[in-house]
Amino acid sequence: RFRKSPPFPEPLQELNLPVLETATLSNGLTLCVAFRENLPLIGMQLVIQAGESSSPPDLPGVATFTAHMMERGTASLTSSQIEEMIESIGGNFSISTSYDYSLFSFSFPEEYLDEVLSLLSQMILQPAFMEREIDTVKRILFYDVLGKGRDAQFLAKRQLLQLLFKNHPYRNATFTEDSIKNIDQKDVISFFEKYYRPNNALLVLTGNLNLTTASKKVSHYLNTWQNQDLEHSLLPSPEANAEERVCFIELPKAKDCTILLGNIILSVTSPAFFPILVLNQVLGGTPNSRLFMNLRESKGYAYFAFSEVEFHKSCGVFIINAKVAPDTVYVSIQEILKELRTISKEKIPTSEIEQAKSYLIGNFPLKIENLNDFCSKISDIENFNLGEEHWNEYYENIMLIDSEKVFEVAQGYSLLTPVIVVVGDKLVMEALREFDKVDVYDRKGVLQYTITKGAEK
């Protein structure tokens, strides 16, 4: 009962974010600097604006493969030497690839800025792409994807995104282990030479330095990085799923049942961005939200039930994620759909709206407290051209949201016609026969057969 009465919101702390200073260097590299005083560490992120959507249709995964090759040796450094150098200065380095870009993140003590920029220049200007390292990365990625293929959450989300992005370049991000086997040295070099160009990159630096100092340092180490003309066409938004679709993937001996529902929504630049954040918070953002309170606290069906929104350049994705007991899978899906219908047909009470806004505002500083998270936020601001609205004016834009604006958003998007993916033991299929039609897929996302309601077992 106590969870139905959240505590009164604390007074908001003042949000003092540093000014983002940007400059374009002579070779076309965009540099963004956020000065943070009394911070002994520097955060640095190199963003190459080529993610999995840039991978050729017949070579999904090559963007990820290429990114991971950047730490596998240069003309003068082996992969072990690169790793040892980063460790010796007390630094951290990570690589990630999204739909829209590839990200190289560093954090290190400020006195080692020259050493890290020198290392970055060697990685970018003198990559080795040796065959034995190609084989190593291929093996690492192959077994990584293969291992994830035994995880219900991974399988459900990959299948959901494969279906939502069926005819869109974003589908490349849902590659399987089979795709990795088809990538060779020539493919990696071709991708690198096409996209790893300064005029297709952003370098973010945050710490105790200003734009003038950063520009001089970066220019010194990266001035020979040659630009090249690139054709950048804005990807169209994928079509939202128009009618409810149910899919099943068998995971033998799974004790629980994983449910993911989702559909395409607005892009991050849409005026409806802030209302959808509030809607998501009310529906399933925390254990106090409607989904969790219904499926877990009230009905006892679920171990958890949350919702989330992911944003990319071309679109967003609204996802509901629940883990339930196998014998409650059908009724759990019905309850989730009921919550979606309610939020689409009835205005959310002001009290819930205000609680959601308070949480979003209070949580924002926590989401950028970590140095890498702070840099990533700046990278998103610059990459998606979001500007002040998503930086210094975040509080104000959340505060302007009311019940009417959230209701308009709930009615304007296809929340009621989601793709529904269920992963569990084959016994779950009996409950799913209540649906008119269920498509059954294997763990690689290949359609096996379809079951219709009333058909013989």
What does this protein look like?
Helix content is 39%, strand content 20%. It is α+β, with helices and mostly antiparallel strands. Strands 9-10-8-11-7-12-13 form a 7-stranded mixed β-sheet, sandwiched between helices. A 6-stranded mixed β-sheet has the order 1-2-6-3-5-4, with helices on both faces. Helix 9 (273-284) crosses helix 12. The longest helix is centred in the N-terminal third of the chain and has 18 residues, at 131-148. The two termini are 44 Å apart.
Q: In summary, what is this structure?
A:
The protein has 457 residues and is an alpha+beta fold. It has 16 helices and 13 strands.
Poorly predicted spans: none
Topology as H/E string? EEEHHEEHHHHHEHEEHHEEHHHHHEHEE
Mean pLDDT: 92
- Give the percentage of residues in beta strands: 15-25%
**Alpha-carbon distance between the termini?**
44 Å
Shape: globular
Helical/strand content category: alpha+beta
Strand order of the largest sheet: 9-10-8-11-7-12-13
- The count of strands amounts to 13
The radius of gyration computed from the alpha-carbon positions, rounded to a whole number of angstroms, is 24 Å
What is the number of helices?
16
Largest sheet: 7 strands, mixed
Helix content: 25-40%
Using brief descriptors, characterize the structure shown:
globular, 6-stranded mixed beta sheet, 457 residues, 16 helices, 7-stranded mixed beta sheet, alpha+beta
Write the layout of secondary structure elements.
Elements: E1 20-24, E2 30-35, E3 41-48, H1 62-69, H2 79-88, E4 92-97, E5 102-109, H3 113-125, H4 131-148, H5 152-164, H6 177-181, H7 185-195, E6 201-207, H8 211-222, E7 245-250, E8 257-265, H9 273-284, H10 290-298, E9 302-311, E10 316-324, H11 329-345, H12 350-367, H13 371-383, H14 394-399, H15 403-412, E11 419-424, H16 429-432, E12 437-441, E13 447-452
Parallel strand pairs: 2-6, 7-11, 7-12
Antiparallel strand pairs: 1-2, 3-5, 3-6, 4-5, 8-10, 8-11, 9-10, 12-13
Helix pairs in contact: 1-7, 3-8, 9-12, 9-15, 10-11
